[in-house]
């Protein structure tokens, strides 16, 4: 079973540390996966408009209400503002679209998905004409700043979005919107795993009381690197934890436990019932086991860099990763 750990956000709401992610979950699979997750015991669901599966997620949630006796207040549901919706006049309609797709009256949390604005419109990936990237370049809107968007998000009715936050924001991005508005995001959802521990960002967010939610906890396959759960050093930690606890502990459980150290939440995703259940069987790590996983991050590796990993390409430097240096656009900070 899950340890059922929750942490209190800056607005007083509690968020379960172990959540269920829906990124890259295909329509036709995701409703079953969401219901399976609710049946196992997950109560924190992470969604986004751009995942293009929220209507199917809604079906899984409704089935949970009908067959498991769950109520809306039992769940913590997050969704996100997409990049084509950053213009201030588009922010509340975007939230309304999420609520309509999910057939809900409110979200527990609404995040700015990325600190980048695309050209407005119904096309989620508007393309620049004549670009030579193999699958084209997304059209970046340099006239909309992250301050513009954050100010618009702050005006959203609390009756529709109870918690407001961001995703993929650096210290510089956070500093900019806080200085401009005096309002601190409740959450920053970021790529975080043992190969990308991000200690400076973690420390900054801790000092500002910004909750961290980790995505891509197991790494990913963008660069054909082995997933963390397949690495021998992680398997060795799992074996030691199994011996210490007298039960089988899997590499996935080790990574998810590490991800929650310090009060962070984590949102593993799967459509396989056995893995959904496995991920929910939580363990507490010893200090030695935590240190062994910490050691994997000596040479940080970011997996989710839209300039290099995404098709179509996002021609923008978001993280100041060395691979982003050739990008022609920067995050528009505003003031």
TrEMBL record:
Substrate binds at residue 113. The keyword Oxidoreductase applies. One of its GO terms (molecular function) is oxidoreductase activity. Residues 18-296 form the NADP-dependent oxidoreductase domain. Belongs to the aldo/keto reductase family. PANTHER family: ALDO/KETO REDUCTASE. This is Putative aldehyde reductase. It comes from Lophiostoma macrostomum CBS 122681.
């Amino acid at each position: 079973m899950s340890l059922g750990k929750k942490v209190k956000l800056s607005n007083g709401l509690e968020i379960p540390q172990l959540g269920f992610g829906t990124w890259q979950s295909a329509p036709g699979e995701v409703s079953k996966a969401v219901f399976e997750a609710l049946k196992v015991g997950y109560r924190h669901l992470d969604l986004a408009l751009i995942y293009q599966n929220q209507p199917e997620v809604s079906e899984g949630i409704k089935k949970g209400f009908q067959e498991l006796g769950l109520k809306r207040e039992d769940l913590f549901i997050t969704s996100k503002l997409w990049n084509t919706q950053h213009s201030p006049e588009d922010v509340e309609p975007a939230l309304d679209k999420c609520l309509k797709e999910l057939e809900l009256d409110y979200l527990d949390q609404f995040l700015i998905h990325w600190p980048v604005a695309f050209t407005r419109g119904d096309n989620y990936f508007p393309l620049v004409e004549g670009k030579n990237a193999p699958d084209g370049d997304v059209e970046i809107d340099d006239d909309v700043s992250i301050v513009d968007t954050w100010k618009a998000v702050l005006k959203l009715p609390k009756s529709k979005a109870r918690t407001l936050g961001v995703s993929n924001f650096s210290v510089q991005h956070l500093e900019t919107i806080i200085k401009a508005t005096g309002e601190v995001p409740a959450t920053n959802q970021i790529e975080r795993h043992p190969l990308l521990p991000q200690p400076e960002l973690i420390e900054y967010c801790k000092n500002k009381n910004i909750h961290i939610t980790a995505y891509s906890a197991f790494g990913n396959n963008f660069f054909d690197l082995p997933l963390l759960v397949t690495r021998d050093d992680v398997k060795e930690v799992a074996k030691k934890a199994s011996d210490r606890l007298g039960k089988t502990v899997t590499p996935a459980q080790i990574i998810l436990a590490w991800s929650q150290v310090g009060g962070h939440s984590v949102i593993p995703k799967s459509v396989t019932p056995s893995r959904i259940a496995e991920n929910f069987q939580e363990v507490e790590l010893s200090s030695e086991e935590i240190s062994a996983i910490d050691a994997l991050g000596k040479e940080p590796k970011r997996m989710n860099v839209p300039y290099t990993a995404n098709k179509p390409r996002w021609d923008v430097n978001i993280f100041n990763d060395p691979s982003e240096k050739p990008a022609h656009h920067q995050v528009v900070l505003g003031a």
